[in-house]
Amino acid sequence: MKKILGTSFTSKLLTILVLSLLLTSGAKAGCDDAPTDGVDYSNCQFSEGQDLSRAYIPNSNLSFISFIQVTLDKGVMMNATLSNGNFVESSFIRTNLYEANLEGGIFEKANFSSANLTRVNFKGSSLIETNFSNSNLFEADFTGANILNATFEGANLNNATWIDGSKCSLGSIGKCNK
Q1: How far apart (Å, rounded) are the C-alpha atoms in residues 150 and 159?
Q2: Please, which residues have CB within 8 angstroms of residue 68's CB and are 6 or more apart in sequence?
Q3: Cys staple from 39: which of 29, 63, 129, 141, with CB 3.0 to 4.6 Å?
Q4: How far apart are CA 53 and CA 102, in angstroms?
Q5: Structural Rg of the chain based on CA atoms
Q6: pLDDT at 27
Q7: Handedness of CA 116, 140, 90, 51 (dihedral sign)
Q8: Interval 91-118: pLDDT, tens
Q9: Per-residue exposure over 110-136, b if at least 16 CB sit within 10 Å of its own CB, e if not
Q10: Measured between alpha carbons, how far apart are the two ends of the chain, in Å?
Q11: What digits encode the pLDDT tens for the residues 47-76?
Q12: Which residues partner with 121 through β-bridges?
């Protein structure tokens, strides 16, 4: 009887340990961890002026963070969430942000030149003096965004949803034709 009781207790303890390891080994990262696929940096405050060029952080959560004057050039941030963050004067030159969510973010004086912004959600974002030159903004959504003095020279705005909710027609290069 003692042997059976001991084996049962050991099995239960082992099962609890395995389950707790499985439940705590998610992709959540601490604010000091290196960028990688699927990490959660939400609510982190980072140093200004960092160079994170070529960062590979697709499917990651960067909502409610501060990334002021950060260089994210030539990075991969597909399907990432950057909503409600502060990215003032940050650089995203040639970065792939395909289907990323930037809703409600502050991207004033940011540089998205030559970036892939296909189907990116910019709803309600502050894009004052932001540079979108030569970017692919196909089907991007600018509903309610502030685009005061933003630059769209050479940008593909085909099928984008403009700040007033209307669709840009095909042939919208450098400006939204309705």
Answers
A1: 19
A2: 48, 49, 86, 87, 88, 89, 90
A3: 29
A4: 19
A5: 21
A6: 44
A7: negative
A8: 999 999 999 999 999 999 999 999 999 9
A9: bbbbbbbbbbbbbbbbbbbebbbbbbb
A10: 82
A11: 899 999 999 999 999 999 999 999 999 999
A12: 101, 141
